[in-house]
Amino acid sequence: MSRHEERDVVIVGGGPAGLAAARRLAAAGLSVTILDEQPELGGQYFRRPAPEVARVWGEHRPEGRRLVEAVRAAGVECRTGHLVWGIDDDGRTLLVSDPAEHPVRLRGRYVIVATGAYERPFPFPGWQLPGVTTPGFAQHLAAADHTPLGERVLLAGSGPFLLPVACSLLALGVTVAGIAEAGHPYRPGLRALGTVRHPARLRELAGYAARLARARVPLWQDTVVVRADGGDRVTSVTLAATAAPTRAVRTVAVDALCVGYGFRPQSDLARMLGCAVRTDPATGDATPVLTSSGRATRDDVYVIGEAAGIGGAPTAAARGLAAALDILAREGHDVPAAELHGLARAGRRLERFKKLTDALYPAPAELARLLPGALPDTATLCRCEAVPAGEVRRVTGTTAGDVNATKAWTRAGMGPCQGRECGFAVSAVTRTSPDVFPSRLPVRPVPVTTLLEMAASEPAASEPAASEPAGSDQAGSDQARSEPAGEGEAA
Predict the structure, then answer these.
(1) What pairs with residue 437 in β-bridges?
(2) CA distance 320 to 324
(3) What's the pTM?
């Protein structure tokens, strides 16, 4: 039978943001439940290795374990292995599949969406070859499980995340064949001088740079992947200049390739809850419209962490605390002024660093303009439905650039990943924004047994349809070899 339950606060996602919010709310006496589909809390950032791995190599980010322990000690109900896959007809109740695949209906007076982010790939000929993956998946294997992706690995794409991934691979004895960065963030310049205002981050960057220099890892800036070749596994990668991707500049022999152009917010659940979204002009991504505390246009919903916009784990945790304090104030709790002022100062510092990072690395909107030029018609654009780029280009004229019409004609973006893998590329090829990809039920693939049991528990007589939640007008929006990353809170 489907269970119906209610809490003061339900948090979807047990990464840094969800954990920070849960600890503060539970400490104030509210009933709080965290739902996370992974077997352990922590999200991608605090993902814990298997016990046998931890015994040999130690813990990966032990501060994550301490945070989870503090959350449990505060009285938070932590439900791991629980997949939130949709919203019920009332527009408020979360539809959940538990570890035994039984359906659960859970409602909170407040819902906090902390579903994290997923990586932003862009296709090229050969991206479906074995050995081609994303940096987040490589980092998970290397840092958390101490499993090398290959013996000679090339990292490519854009963003500061490539550097720690390279260092994690080096620590396992992997040969890093090079790092191909689409932008030029590491060249001296006025923008780069802004890093001196963030000494902790500067020391971290210097540590990565020193490790890569000792290993003599080449760093090619203004360079992108345009082709991967191989048979049973990738064996070589062709690189080209970012500004002229049709002109190859070098070929690198590898047995593994990790490519990713940063991260995208997982806004699907927020959309389904009726929260308004807007298109970020720099990224083209659909991000929820929020107050400074993370409150959405729907008054009982908060969106925090990477789901609110990419900013890294420290920013995610700050957003989680801000949402918790806002809820406590609304509930009549006394929130210390010193806590509010300290959070505001930290938020301003983190926001300055985010703006600096955004300025140093190429904007996804700019990459969306440049990269399609090197994508041949024969290349697979949508891996789930095996749709070539040429088919999408062919119907784009017929559909007048309507990406949803293009999707209907070609099925690009209609596979199990619901456009998470190819949405950015389909939008780039059609010269549209990915925020028009609608959020569909189920948000994530759900076991058939869950649906059958839920249907069997429905009342025989039909009930009147529930009214739409406030703010229900919304913009329309498994990874085989990619990993939800960044803060990485699981939906």
Answers:
(1) none
(2) 6
(3) 0.88
